[in-house]
Amino acid sequence: MEVYSYYGMGSGPDPEDSNPPDYLDWEMWTGPAPMLPYNRMKHPRGWRSFMEYGNGNVGDLCIHMLDAARWMLDLGSPKTVSSSGGIIVSKGRKANISDTQTIIFDFGDLQAVWQHRRWGQSVDPHYPWGVTFYGDKGTLKASINGYDFTPLGGGEPIHREVAMEFDQYPEDRTEKELEKQVAPAIRGHMKDFLAAIASRGKPVADIEQGYISTTACILGNMSMKLGRSLAWDASAGRIVGDEAANRLLQRVYRAPWVHPEPGKV
Q1: Using an 8 Å Cβ cutoff, are 130 and 143 in contact?
Q2: Domain 2-162+207-247 - what CATH class?
Q3: Is the dihedral angle over the CA atoms 195, 198, 199, 202 positive or is it negative?
Q4: What is the DSSP string of 153-189?
Q5: 167 contact partners, CB below 8 Å, separation of at least 6
Q6: Is 66 exposed, middle or buried (0-12, 13-18, 19+ CB in 10 A)?
Q7: pTM to 2 decimals?
Q8: Tens of pLDDT along 83-103?
Q9: Which of the chain's termini has less CB crowding within 10 Å, N or C?
């Protein structure tokens, strides 16, 4: 199984640091993260390109496709995670997330490989961000736009595209800042969440599953940073035999912010 993103990054030059706009409380926006100069690359959406505020392409893009793949295959937590990469091409830019990274999530009976490149071209122009399943009956490619199934040994390929629902929800075409490509999925999750409240059941995107996928992605970034494979004990929520790595599971907070501790409010 492969998960991947080949979305490029914007070309330079990067804007210079400046004073934040009058309407933005930069101190509060920064929160417990390190206090760094304001730059319009960071707000409102560019913060994804800075590790001080997020988890790079892995926490932004890998998590969605890995989460979908885990759901489809009923996978739990990875047993080991190993990663390599870094800033290979986009040197000298203000962004400090990896532009090239490969992660191997080993689930025991199955390995999932993540790869992203923020340069060059996509392997498949129709799937710049997606997941590919290789099975004994064929190959399934899926993304937010649709899927393609190619059977082994002949047979008719199957292609489906997502229903954008513009006829039912024409406001999707004009809603400011709406990510139109995922609007149907957002609606589906909202309906599912409300149904779970009514039934006192669990939604499809249950918080425990989100935690597992998030943990896997954080471990991938940690493995790249440390330069070694990490073994994960899901029941204990700890990395096996690596206290230096375990210390990285909790970010250092900038004063006066205090990291929450179990049992304390």
Answers
A1: yes
A2: alpha beta
A3: positive
A4: TS---EEEE----TTT-GGGGT-TT--GGGHHHHHHH
A5: none
A6: buried
A7: 0.94
A8: 999 999 999 999 999 999 999
A9: C
